[in-house]
Design brief:
five-stranded mixed beta sheet, alpha+beta
């Protein structure tokens, strides 16, 4: 590879290093539990118990991801978190190779492809996260690139398809991608049979599941995810998918065509019920989506991705990752706009990385202040990174609708999806909040700003619908209460 490739690799690693020491945050907690399951029983990582919906049950019943990330993290589980994050960066060279090759093919510029595909805000946020997203994205980029390269040489593309198919070992959302390869081969007038080799990894995982658990995890998670399919749910998920695409995944910063303008108008109307910010993000997402549809070989990759997202339980910005290459490669054509788009995307991504790190450190400091002087262990409610922090301190997750024993210490957050618990018979001992130090940063999660990069819902009574991937706000990241049960 040329020196420019290695220079870009150094740049991408450098964009991750300032945040490498941040504590586990948001959904990283459940993947660390799954990794512990792989350490305890490498063949059955999903057999480990976890309280993730308020009731302790096996991870098989509640964590809707395949075991790839558990197996990847198992060798470094128990090491300091910075070392675990460095371990995740080993996927970067593979991702860069795939982005380089795709950029050469679709944009006639490997450098532009690499910066646009790997400089997306959500990609930067995923780079060192203890989650399946970095491996997933690396395998999608490299697998599709290798498949196309093999086909150019007159081969069926078996190895590229298998490499792409391995992405489904990290997130099931990659499962339909071999069909995308088949469509690309079809439109190029080439053989499509090699693309179906991409189903080999998920077939082998199915055999593993039958042996390890007696049933398929994929089928169990299909019913788990299919619970939000009313017309209102679909409109909500569509608005959130567009807002998250245009606001934190594929920013449409190029000369707009008439079709892109029409897509922006449709998005604006869809997002208007969520205020001017929702309308703006949906307009950007509508423009990005329509602008990416000009390449017929990428059409099904983009549209199929959107339809897949609409069928899920909820939408998160990172759920675009298996389908993001098609959007970015289809959207960016003009040379004079590529570099400005990449620069703006990287700047936004770095700002959101700083916000994510700030929130993680602020939450840890909040818990240290609140629990200072308390040696005894108690019960807590709540999930995300807070769950990991409390369990590391020896506390136990409370069961939903349970009545705590008298005199038991109880800790309850406001935002981290706390379990319903009878807290009114409780003597308060203190309250703390995790406030932002740099309040000028864009916020990936804000209760006051109704933004959530990680889901299209926020905690509330009842939970609140939201579509914004980020906003500007000054409210605390989290507020927790400590009390003693009576």
């Amino acid at each position: 590879m040329p020196s420019r490739f290695w220079a870009l690799l150094v740049l991408l690693i450098g964009l991750q290093l300032p945040w490498i020491g941040r504590p586990p945050h948001y959904d990283e907690a459940n993947f660390l539990v799954l990794a512990r399951g792989a350490v305890l029983d490498p063949w059955r990582p999903h057999a480990i118990p976890i309280n993730w919906q308020g009731t302790t049950e096996t991870a098989f019943a509640v964590l809707s991801n395949p075991p790839g990330i558990a197996w990847w993290l198992a060798p470094v589980f128990g090491l300091p978190v910075p070392l675990q994050r460095l371990w995740m960066l080993l996927w970067l060279p593979l991702a860069l190779w795939g982005a380089w090759q795709l950029g050469r093919r679709f944009l006639s510029s490997p450098e532009a492809g690499a910066l646009l595909l790997l400089g997306s805000p959500i990609v930067l946020l995923s780079g060192a996260a203890l989650m399946p997203d970095a491996p997933l994205y690396a395998l999608v980029l490299s697998g599709s690139a290798l498949f196309l390269e093999e086909q150019d040489r007159g081969r069926p593309g078996l190895w590229g398809a298998i490499l792409l198919g391995m992405a489904a070992l990290f997130r099931y959302s990659a499962l339909p991608l071999p069909l995308v390869l088949a469509a690309m081969a079809f439109f190029a007038g080439r053989r499509t049979i090699g693309a179906f080799a991409g189903f080999i990894p998920i077939f082998l995982l199915g055999i593993h599941d039958i042996h390890a658990y007696g049933k398929l995890h994929l089928l169990a998670m299909g019913s788990f995810q299919s619970v939000a399919n009313t017309p209102e749910d679909w409109l909500h998920k569509l608005a959130a998918a567009l807002a998250m695409l245009g606001g934190a995944a594929a920013l449409p910063l190029r000369d707009w065509s008439r079709n892109m303008a029409l897509g922006a108008v449709a998005g604006l109307l869809l997002g208007w019920p969520w205020g001017w910010a929702g309308a703006l993000f949906c307009a950007l997402g509508g423009a990005s989506l329509v602008g990416s549809l000009r390449r017929k070989e990428l059409f099904f990759w983009t549209v199929g991705g959107l339809l897949f997202l609409l069928g899920l339980r909820f939408v998160a910005t990172r759920y675009w990752l298996p389908f993001l290459p098609a959007v970015i490669l289809g959207l960016h054509q003009e040379n004079r706009w590529r570099w400005s788009s990449a620069i703006v995307s990287i700047l936004l991504g770095v700002a959101l990385q700083a916000d994510d790190a700030q929130g993680a450190f602020a939450q840890r400091a909040m818990l240290q202040r609140l629990l200072a002087g308390f040696e005894e262990k108690g019960l807590f409610t709540g999930h995300w990174g807070l769950q990991w922090e409390m369990e590391q301190r020896g506390w136990q997750a409370a069961e939903a609708q349970s009545h705590p024993p008298p005199q038991k210490l109880l800790l309850r957050p406001e935002q981290s999806w706390p379990q319903p618990l009878e807290l009114w018979e409780c003597a308060p001992l203190g309250q703390e909040e995790a406030g932002p130090l740099w309040s000028w940063l864009p916020r990936g999660y804000s209760a006051a700003g109704h933004a959530n990069l990680h889901a299209n819902w926020q905690m509330g009574d009842p939970p609140r619908r939201t579509i914004l991937p980020w906003t500007f706000a000054h409210d605390p990241y989290e507020r927790v209460q400590l009390c003693r049960a009576r």
